[in-house]
């Protein structure tokens, strides 16, 4: 039997039309989260160049950063290395009315730290044992936990790495750790499979998204989040601008003539 042909990559026009509809719904979700004091965590994981950053940008570009808060923690400091492993992540957990988006998360221990030897096999094993318990504690405390894994294919990942190498606007995305991970595809695959086996639980399941087509992946992620968090549209009073007061009126532009403006080169 012939294999099904992969779907044609989504056209920009179609993508932008669908994205706008979903972003409107995200604004409605935002108001509901604020009104109901919901606490939401969205975890983005996946291979390097899987499209996490672009998906998070599409998710957050039309909403308030005070509600949709992106957390991309740097490498731990010397002090943080002496803390409980999950401590610095728990400090970022949401209060009522917040959605915290982890651009990579505590699952670093199950992925890059394990594969690259930054943690011991015993620390990795201990993490896989404790992680479901910590997530159960968070869910039982009322947090809506959404765990997303973006799965990019081997050939598509190579194309994206090559594009980063050749494009000066994207070279900053390519770190020595990224290039090292490129050669360890199957090591990361095994680490991924171990992680899923231990942490794909009923209270905090993983959801996978094929991301070879970035546009389809972004839409599918946003659609899933909207489906996962029950929300209702909140009616808002129509805003009317008040009349400007002309009391104390003066030529407020004349006072700027002595100031130095940026050169108008465009």
UniProtKB/TrEMBL annotation:
**Coiled-coil zones:** none
Top-level lineage group? Bacteria
User: Would I find Transferase among this entry's keywords?
Assistant: yes
Q: What is its EC number?
A: 2.7.4.-
Set out the biological process GO terms recorded for this chain's protein: ATP biosynthetic process
Q: Which key words tag this protein in UniProt?
A: ATP synthesis, Kinase, Transferase
| Polyphosphate kinase-2-related domain segment(s) | 10-235
Write out the GO MF terms. polyphosphate kinase activity
The portions of this protein that span the membrane are: none
Among NCBIfam families, the record links this protein to: PPK2_P_aer (TIGR03707)
Q: Which family does it belong to?
A: Belongs to the polyphosphate kinase 2 (PPK2) family. Class I subfamily.
Per the entry, what this protein does is: Uses inorganic polyphosphate (polyP) as a donor to convert GDP to GTP or ADP to ATP.
Quaternary structure and interacting proteins, as annotated = Homotetramer.
- What's the name of the protein? ADP/GDP-polyphosphate phosphotransferase
What would be the name of the gene that encodes this protein? ppk2
């Amino acid at each position: 039997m012939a294999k099904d042909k992969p779907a044609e990559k989504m056209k920009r026009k179609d993508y932008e039309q669908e994205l706008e509809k979903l972003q409107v719904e995200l604004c409605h979700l935002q108001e509901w989260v604020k009104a109901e004091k919901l606490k939401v965590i969205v975890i983005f994981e996946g291979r390097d160049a899987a499209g996490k950053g672009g998906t998070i940008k599409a998710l957050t570009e039309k909403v308030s950063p005070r509600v949709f808060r992106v957390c991309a923690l740097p490498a731990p400091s010397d002090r943080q290395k002496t803390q409980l492993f999950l401590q610095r992540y728990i400090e970022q957990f949401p209060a009522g009315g917040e959605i915290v988006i982890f651009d990579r998360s505590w699952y670093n221990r199950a992925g890059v730290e394990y594969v690259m030897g930054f943690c011991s096999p015993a620390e990795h094993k201990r993490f896989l044992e404790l992680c479901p318990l910590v997530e159960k504690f968070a869910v039982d405390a009322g947090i809506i936990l959404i765990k997303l894994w973006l799965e990019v294919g081997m050939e598509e990942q190579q194309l994206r790495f090559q594009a980063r190498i050749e494009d000066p606007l994207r070279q900053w995305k390519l770190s020595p750790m990224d290039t090292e991970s490129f050669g360890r595809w199957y090591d990361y695959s095994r680490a991924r499979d171990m992680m899923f086996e231990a942490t794909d639980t009923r209270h905090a399941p993983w959801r996978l998204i094929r991301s070879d087509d970035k546009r389809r992946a972004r839409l599918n992620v946003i659609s899933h989040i909207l489906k996962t968090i029950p929300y209702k549209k909140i009616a808002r009073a129509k805003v009317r601008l008040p009349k400007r007061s002309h009391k104390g009126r003066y030529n407020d532009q004349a006072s700027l003539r002595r100031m130095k403006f940026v050169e108008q080169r465009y």
